[in-house]
Every structure is written in structure tokens, then in C-alpha cells.
Automatic annotation (TrEMBL):
Protein name: Carboxypeptidase M32
Pfam families tied to this protein: Peptidase_M32
MF term (GO), any: metallocarboxypeptidase activity
Stored SUPFAM superfamilies: Metalloproteases ('zincins'), catalytic domain
Source species taxonomy: Bacteria, Bacillati, Chloroflexota, Anaerolineae, Anaerolineales
GO biological process terms held by the UniProt record: proteolysis
Nucleotide-binding listed as a keyword: no
Keyword Ribosomal protein: no
Keywords annotated in UniProt: Carboxypeptidase, Hydrolase, Protease
Length: 347
């Protein structure tokens, strides 16, 4: 179908522009020297603006309109129907936001990240505070493009988890809070688990090697992915054949790098499992942010903190760090790894 092929080609250009920006962003967060931030911010701004202009063009709008009868004639779960439906939804969302505004947002985000890293290293919030205030101002400016939204956060939630709103999320959180707060109170009122076995000196390179061997056995394909280090762990997918993760390693805390590695591998294995036939389309990025996070938390917490998991891997960890763990029983290690405590750090 000529019109569908034309839509695919145009969306592929948008995809490639976005991926080019993701490559530059990955580089900034991993290897780029701090001095490159000004040029990188400009580059990301340019690519973001071009992608926005291509996606919100009149040509794309016309193709989506012309293809709607074809989409309506197909089963709801047909790939063509899904592509047209998702493209139209994202197109209508993106059309609300001027490309110039998105360009400013991209440029500001790149600059803010570099300052955040400096502020984090120096433990000085004031360095980044004015930039975060500007981030909120830009976010409000984006939200103002959706005057019908009941809450300023709704447009951003919709972009990540279509169909969800503040109005729907708040009762859900309230229900969870009703059960979780008493549970946490009950646990933390008892003598806390001793996690000192995790706070010894663990060689960073050995931590990375052990974590990579674990996720390799879990299913992360290193022929189609890699792991690096960054100030905050993240996953980025340039294609289903190139999915990259990062971790953060601390010599005096084994759990941080290990949990981050397994968590990000959960995201990455979800991306690596996407049908290659969807490559370059809007259907290749996962169902939603919520589903994506469910995969990462499943591997990190349900699998990666479980007794059966460590019954297999703990002897291997002890061989990696005999001085630290040779005389630490598995049960002691498990209690330490599953220690419950309140924290301002969500991970």
C-alpha cells in the first residue's frame, strides 16, 4: 500500500533523527568530557527540533487521515492498525508543542544534566537548583499547550503511559499507601537486618565482571548490547540489535552496582525481545513506561533478591570475593540484600 509505505518511510526518518540524539545523549552520560556540554546541548536541540518538525509535518497528518479508513477495516491488534493508531495519537500530542519549545527543552536538559553531575559530586544542591526551577518552568510551558488537561502533569503522563492521569493514579497510590505504610512501620520497628557484609571493600572491576556474567545467564545478549558506567544507571535502545545499559559502581557497597545492573538488564531484555519486524517504527519501544518498569523491577527484586537465584549464584560470588564473603552464610547475605529501610533514594 503506497500511502502506508510512505508513512513508514517518514516515520523512519523521525526515528533515525531521534536515535541520533539518543546516541549523543548516551555519549554525554558516559564518556563525553565536561567541556563538550555547550556544543552537545546545541546538537541535541537541533536534532530534537528536526525530529519534531518532520513528525508534525502536514504530510504526516495527511497520510494518517487518508489511512484511517484502512486502519478501521483491520482487526484492532493488526500491526498496520496499531501503527496508524499509535502514530496518530503521538502525532496529535506532538502537534500541540511548537518545535522551538522542544528545542529549548532539549538544550536545557543537556546543560542541566552536566551541572547536576557536578552538584552531586560536590553535594551542593544550590548549583543545580536554578536549572531545576527552569525545568519546571519549561514543563509548565509544555503543559499549557494542553489547556483541556485537568492537571499540568497529565500531558507528560499520557506521553509515557497512555490512558493514565493524575486523577486515576492518586487513588491507586492511596490504596497502596494504606497497605504499605503499616507494613513498613511493622518491619522497621524491629531490629534491622545487618547489611555490613555488603559494605566491605569490593573491587570495582570484579563487581562489573560478576554482574555481567549474571545478566548474560539471565538472557542479556552482549552481541546486541553492552554495559558502561554513568552517574545514574539507565537503558537506551538504538535498535533491537543495539541496546545499552549503564551501572554505577561503589567499592564499599556491593548491592548498588549489582541491583542496578540487573534492573537495567530487565529493561534491556525487554527491548531485545521486541520483534525485529517493528524496527524503526513507533511500535518498537515497548508498551508503556509502566510495563517497562515492571520488567526491570521483576528481574531486580523478584528474581535478583530471591533465595533460589542466590542458591545458584552465591557460591560463584563467594569465589569472586572469598576474603569478604567466604564465611558469610547465604541466609545472612539474603537478609542483608533484602534489608527494608526508609530512604530518599528511590532505587
Amino acid at each position: 500500500m503506497d500511502q502506508l509505505d510512505e508513512l513508514r518511510k517518514r516515520l523512519e526518518v523521525v526515528h533515525d533523527l531521534n536515535v541520533a540524539g539518543m546516541v549523543l545523549n548516551w555519549d554525554q552520560l558516559t564518556y563525553m568530557p565536561p567541556g563538550g556540554v555547550e556544543a552537545r546541548a546545541r546538537q541535541l536541540s537541533t536534532l530534537g527540533r528536526l525530529a519534531q518538525e518532520w513528525f508534525t509535518s502536514e504530510e504526516v497528518g495527511r497520510l494518517l487521515e487518508d489511512l484511517q479508513p484502512y486502519a478501521d477495516s483491520l482487526p484492532y491488534d493488526h500491526k498496520d492498525a496499531a501503527l496508524i493508531r499509535v502514530a496518530k495519537r503521538q502525532y496529535e500530542w506532538a502537534r500541540r508543542i511548537p518545535p522551538e519549545l522542544m528545542a529549548r527543552f532539549y538544550q536545557h536538559s543537556a546543560t542541566t544534566y552536566q551541572t547536576w553531575v557536578e552538584a552531586k559530586t560536590k553535594d551542593n544542591f544550590r548549583l543545580v537548583e536554578p536549572l531545576l526551577e527552569k525545568t519546571l518552568d519549561l514543563s509548565r510551558e509544555v503543559a499549557s499547550c494542553f489547556p483541556e488537561a485537568k492537571h499540568p502533569a497529565d500531558p507528560f503522563i499520557e506521553a509515557s503511559d497512555y490512558g493514565m492521569t493524575v486523577e486515576l493514579i492518586r487513588p491507586l497510590f492511596a490504596e497502596l499507601r494504606q497497605e504499605l505504610v503499616p507494613l513498613i512501620d511493622a518491619i522497621t520497628s524491629q531490629t534491622p537486618a545487618d547489611d555490613s557484609c555488603l559494605k566491605q571493600s569490593f573491587d570495582k572491576e570484579k563487581q562489573i565482571a560478576f554482574g555481567e556474567e549474571v545478566i548474560r545467564q539471565l538472557g542479556f545478549d552482549f552481541q546486541r548490547g553492552r554495559q558502561d558506567q554513568s552517574a545514574h544507571p539507565f537503558t537506551t535502545a538504538f535498535s533491537v540489535h543495539d541496546v545499552r545499559i549503564t551501572t554505577r559502581v561503589r567499592e564499599n557497597d556491593f548491592s548498588e552496582a549489582f541491583s542496578s545492573t540487573v534492573h537495567e538488564a530487565g529493561h534491556a531484555m525487554y527491548e531485545q525481545g521486541i520483534d525485529p519486524a517493528l524496527e524503526g517504527t513507533l511500535l518498537a519501544g515497548g508498551t508503556s513506561a509502566g510495563v517497562h518498569e515492571s520488567q526491570s523491577r521483576l528481574w531486580e527484586n523478584i528474581v535478583g533478591r530471591g533465595e533460589d537465584f542466590w542458591f545458584y549464584f552465591y557460591p560463584r560470588l563467594q569465589k569472586t570475593f572469598p576474603e569478604q564473603l567466604e564465611h558469610v552464610p547465604l541466609n545472612t547475605f539474603l537478609k542483608a540484600l533484602n534489608k527494608v529501610q526508609r530512604s530518599l533514594i528511590r532505587t
